[in-house]
Amino acid sequence: MKIRKAVFPVAGLGTRVLPATKAMPKEMLTIVDKPLIQYVVDEAREAGIEHFIFVTGRNKGVIEDHFDRMFELDATLAARGKKAEMEILARDQPEAGAMSFTRQQAPLGLGHAVWCARDIVGHEPFAVVLPDELVLNTPGCLAQMIEAAARLDKNSNLIAVEAVPDHLTHQYGICGVGKRDGNIFEVDGMVEKPRKGTAPSNLSITGRYILQPEIFNVLETLEHGAGGEIQLTDAMIGLAKKQKFYGVEFKGERHDCGSKAGFLRANIAYAMARPELRDGLRADLKKYLGK
């Protein structure tokens, strides 16, 4: 199964981290020295994605600007001999035509955001990557999923899953577990935020998906679900009646950067993964922990 396109839903308001996101899209908040959106685009690029599709909304133009060239900045860096900085910008610069942007004109949920990308995706399997969830690992989560997809039927759908404590399963979408082969298993049902004590497993649905284009047909007629929104999980439950879904237990450390505590933890984790920052940060953390 060849996965060439990835959809990045970036129209959300980021209300969990207000007031930081009042004027700044949450996807542009920085983890160490890169915005969130750059990390997930890098993850997709590592996985072999060729076309990056952003579903945006109001106040998100800076995301498009981030992936564009800034000729004034390039000229200034060149004039000052800032070769290292120029190399960083060149490395992150996408190829011309590799990115598309479309609008979700109302906050109608993740399922609706994915549906908004239907004409750009076309009739081929595609990835969905939620930008406020980072996975610290090499290879990245999406690369692991695409490797798993290569071992499955070409009409398969895949969901990245992570084990959560049993007493917290009511806070997540949870997969039922069928036949297993290593870190891959057949999804035997999906439940969005099951009542306490009723979850079919402790494996939660996280922010990485590989979906067949038939999901758009389901989303087209899907009724509004939890929160009055069109839920992607509801659409996957509908599609699962006709196509196989598989869960992939990925390797890596997941960080929910859409919450304030998760955002802070991600900054620490990614900084500690950088040799040039690790020792100084460790010393500073010991100082603050001692207070």
List its traits.
291 residues; alpha/beta; Spore Coat Polysaccharide Biosynthesis Protein SpsA, Chain A; 9-stranded mixed β-sheet; two-stranded antiparallel sheet; 11 helices; 34% helix
Structure at a glance:
With 291 residues, this protein is α/β, with parallel strands linked by helices.
Strand and helix layout:
Layout: E1 5-9, E2 30-31, E3 34-35, H1 36-46, E4 51-56, H2 61-66, H3 71-79, H4 83-92, E5 99-103, H5 110-115, H6 118-121, E6 126-129, E7 133-136, H7 141-149, E8 157-163, E9 173-181, E10 184-192, E11 203-211, H8 215-221, H9 232-239, E12 245-249, E13 253-256, H10 260-272, H11 275-289
Parallel strand pairs: 1-4, 1-6, 4-5, 8-12
Antiparallel strand pairs: 2-3, 6-11, 7-13, 8-11, 9-10, 10-12
Summarize the structure in words.
With 291 residues, this protein is α/β, with parallel strands linked by helices. The chain has one domain: Alpha-Beta Complex (Spore Coat Polysaccharide Biosynthesis Protein SpsA, Chain A). The protein contains eleven helices and 13 strands. It has helices spanning 36-46, 61-66, 71-79, 83-92, 110-115, 118-121, 141-149, 215-221, 232-239, 260-272, 275-289, and strands at residues 5-9, 30-31, 34-35, 51-56, 99-103, 126-129, 133-136, 157-163, 173-181, 184-192, 203-211, 245-249, 253-256. Strands 5-4-1-6-11-8-12-10-9 form a nine-stranded mixed sheet. Strands 2-3 form a two-stranded antiparallel ribbon. A hairpin with a 2-residue loop joins β9 (173-181) and β10 (184-192). The longest helix is centred in the last third of the chain and has 15 residues, at 275-289. The chain is globular and about 60 Å long.
